[in-house]
Automatic annotation (TrEMBL):
Superkingdom in the source lineage: Bacteria
A Pfam family matched in the record: PDH_N
Residues in the signal sequence: none
Protein's recorded name: Prephenate dehydrogenase
Domain annotation Prephenate/arogenate dehydrogenase: ranges: 18-295
Length: 374
């Protein structure tokens, strides 16, 4: 048996029991539904849009919620501007359920609920660090949360049993629960998610009126730095507005950095100008080095770039022959140059495996376009 996402639905031991009610049948809500159903868990879906709800049900994310449902957990997956309203309603309607939400901003909804004097004993805010550029039930995936951090915001009133339910939810979805305060969470996502969205969008906006000749020179670097610029403006207006203060703080510091670099470039031969530019690039190197890699580790890998003909089965053959060589692929990035009949596969491997991978692939006829030892 499998659902419409292609995920095999099997009855396996679950950390959750009973019904999970999901309010909001968009990307996150439907993805939660698909993943839980694959574990044999009853998922009751609700959405303010009947069309969205029917679409999510048709895709197999769950069944329509019924008046007699008695959920153990309620997951609120609605836009930021209505999340406080829905949390309040769900706490009132389901007095025995633990209510969590997956909004990307945690402090503002909490403050709004506190202003309304809502009893928040059974509410635990949370946020999975997962998503896609395209939203809606049609884009939902059962594996969306696998390996992703899932922030859980507890406080001194949080009951241990309730906390365990929310953490069990994250674990069922393949995520890794992390405890943070709402303030810590919002400052963190301002730096790692919200500001990058603004910067990527501003950079991509420069392309709107660019000459076609310039766009033909597009490389992977530009694609990487503008990928998230395809996100929905309506959603991001809400997110940025709800987390404005920490976003502004980082953007203002970033603007100062840009002014310093621009000043150095206005007179690149002036004393200290080259050092300013070099320090800017070096500090970027330092930041990249701190990003967690595979399995959350800070280990660094070597890379080789393999030219792959743009024909069916070539990438599979490449992986198969790397396996025969005993080389584990730690990471992969593909680049297709406009008009070219081949792609470039940038493959990350353990440093000790680099030379053997290059020699073995060349013996098998693969063309190596470069590596980190060049």
């Amino acid at each position: 048996m499998s659902d419409s996402t292609g995920t095999r639905a099997t009855k396996v031991a679950s950390r959750l029991s009973g019904t999970v009610r999901v309010v909001g049948a968009g990307l996150l809500g439907s993805s939660i539904g698909h993943a839980l159903r694959a574990k044999g868990i009853d998922v009751a879906l609700a959405d303010a849009s009947p069309a969205q709800l029917r679409l999510a049900i048709d895709y197999g994310a769950g069944r329509a919620a019924a008046a007699g449902d008695d959920p153990a957990v309620v997951v609120v997956a609605v836009p930021p501007d209505v999340v406080a309203d829905v949390i309040e309603q769900e706490l009132r309607t389901h007095p025995d359920a633990v209510v969590t939400d997956v909004a990307s901003v945690k402090l503002e909804p909490l403050r709004e609920l506190e202003r309304r004097r809502v009893d928040l004993t059974r509410y635990i805010g949370s946020h999975p660090l997962a998503g896609r550029e395209r939203g809606g039930a049609i884009s939902a995936r059962a594996d969306l949360f696998i390996g992703r951090p899932w922030v859980v915001c507890r406080d001194e009133e949080t009951r241990a049993a309730d906390l365990s339910l929310v953490e069990a939810l994250a674990l069922e979805l393949g995520a890794t629960p992390l405890e943070m305060t709402p303030e810590e969470h919002d400052r963190s996502v301002a730096l790692t998610s919200h500001v990058p969205q603004v910067i990527a969008s501003l950079l991509a906006a420069r392309l709107a009126d660019a000459e076609e000749g310039a766009l033909r020179l597009t490389g992977q670097g530009l694609r990487d730095t503008t990928r998230i610029a395809a996100s929905a403006p309506e959603l991001w207006v809400q997110i940025l507005g709800a987390n404005a203060a920490p976003v502004v703080e980082i953007l203002e510091a970033f603007a100062d950095d840009l002014r310093e670099v621009a000043g150095a470039l206005r007179a690149p031969d002036a004393a200290g100008a080259r050092r300013t530019l070099a320090d800017a690039i070096r500090h970027g190197n330092d930041g990249v080095e701190r990003l967690p890699g595979k399995h959350g580790q800070n280990r660094r890998f070597e890379t080789l770039v393999v030219m792959v003909d743009d024909t069916a089965g070539q990438l599979g053959r490449l992986f198969g022959e790397l396996g025969e060589l005993g080389v584990n692929v730690e990471d992969l990035r593909l680049e297709h140059s406009p008009g070219a009949q081949f792609g470039l596969a940038e493959i990350s491997v353990e440093p000790a495996a680099l030379r053997g991978a290059i020699e073995g692939l060349e013996e098998r006829g693969w063309r190596i376009a470069g590596n980190t030892n060049d």
